[in-house]
Amino acid sequence: MLIAIASGLLAIYGKQSIAHEQARILVLPPSGAAEAIDLNRYLQRLVSDREADTPFDVVQIDETEFAPVYQTPGPGYTDRTIWYRTPVRIVNQPDRMGSSSFIDIGQVYLNDIALSILSEDGRQIIWHERVGDRVQTAGNEVHGLSHVAEWPKLALGNYWLVIGVKTTSAHVLAAELLPDNVLISKSGSESFIKGASLGVLIVAFGLYFTFGLLSGDRSVIWYAVYILSLFLVYFGVTGYAQLIFKPLWPLASDFVTGAGTALALGSCVMMWSYITRLDQTNRWLFRVMAAYSTVAIAGFVTGTSDWYIIYAKLVFGPEIVLLTVLLINLIYRAYREKQNWQNGFLMVALGIPTVAAIAHLMLLIGILPVNGMTTSIFTAGSIIQLVMVAAAMGYRSYGLINRRVDALATSQRANQLASEQRTFITMLSHEFRTPLAIIQRSAEILGLHLQKEPEAVLNRLSTIRSNAGQLSGLVDAFLTKETLDSATFGTTREAVAIDAFLGDLIARRHREVPGQNISLIKCDTAIVEIDRILMERAMLNLIENARKYAPGAAVWISAEREANGYVYIRVVDEGPGIAADDLQNVLNAFYRGKDATKTQGVGLGLHLTNRIIEAHDGSLSVSVGEERGTTILIKLPYDRDKTVLRASENRTRSLTGYPDPPTNGERA
Q: Check: CATH 3.40.50.620 for 23-184?
């Protein structure tokens, strides 16, 4: 890297005599060039503020107001016409005769290029041609990847070649004079190289973008976006955009190139920010980078107008500063974490291309001179980046595959342990149930035979029954949870009339817990497909919850059938309600609210009820009233046809006075 920087500095700040070694006069045979000639080594650019509107004006200006094109900074972005000139001498060179020659302008994004050859005194135009991506070409003209004009056959003598360029893009001129055979050979080879490069970029974008989405890595996604921006830029500057779309829209080349540049400016900064983990280490700087990237990308709307000049002047400078800051941050990280080889890799894979990008931007805005290094460094840096990042992504993919294999093995082991744990808990629960049932039954029998015993003895029996009941409920809860969490869990459903089901359930609860104030206030007829045992457990959990957390408070249950195919069961208590902070967590397993310390339990009741309701394709929600109290809303689908038939049978019996047939509790 140091060698590259040193070479760049030497090329930029080396002996200025190089610029003066260029030939002052372009000497040619009458037919033009017999070999390729780099016109940049002959052309001089008007650098003073003198107004020049025509080629005639340019020829008359003193030489001191011109500077060589080669090895001097360009004018950057301006809405002025930039003028270039060089003297031309046509001499008889029998050994260097060719058939025809062409001027080839390399920068396809230049809008309007006026080419003129004037007489030695500058008073007569011998030849004039206009090319550019906004210049309409004749219908019979051959379109190519660059701007080409045929060099005229000139008589012996002295002339002036004058070039005027007006564009909204950067004024970086690259002009060559080529014989026809060289032009044909160059066009063929460059067409293949440019096409292959575009193909590589679009394939790389697809691969990295897909990989980024699958892995969830934002740095990879932004790198894919950056590659897409490179594709758009190269699609524009290589001439394919104007070749394909210019007949349809003359501004297509400017739009593609401008949009690609704007996207490159923004995505490059975002990619860097995620790679250097600014989103984790320096949130403030990351927000600055994100805001700048948004503005930079939004600049694509200026791509086809003169506003692009203002956009480039406002954005390119800050881009250089931000890239420099990010590069310094990477160097600092590499120095601080010397043992981390990845930082050293990033120094090469991203550091060198970033230096190239900074140099390229400085060339475009007229800070660095035009020479072989500055005009090709960005392409070279991009190639280095693509190759090294491809290697890094291959290594990363290998690591991800290995981690996924390890994760799969760990997951399988965890599932096996969980299955063994469920089996153990289920076995343990069954083993507990038998002795607990004996304890509870024995305590009940003793209570019947010892009714005349002292109160202390009766209290002891009550304590035994109470604690045995709590332990039995705990065992039931854990057994039910493990059943619901099992991968083989299923429901055994049957058609049940919800009104009869709830009525029998409440009647049985009154018998078992005489002191609880629970009422069925409204119940529509609806036939639901449910697992009766599980649904009883779910409803009893809700009723028991109301008894524990709202002792003595009234509990109301209702069931309303709606036309949308669902029956809505509400369990409402008039207790203190649930704290707002606890509402979002009450359905989680083992969660107990802040006010639950005075009651016994493990926090499984609502969780199990919710799992049971979900297993029946329903839903459960919890809300608190304005004045307190808790409302549990259960939504279950019902069978429309069976419900209509059952409702019709109920109306018939009501009209005839016949009693309802026995339903065996709750079956339809």
A: no
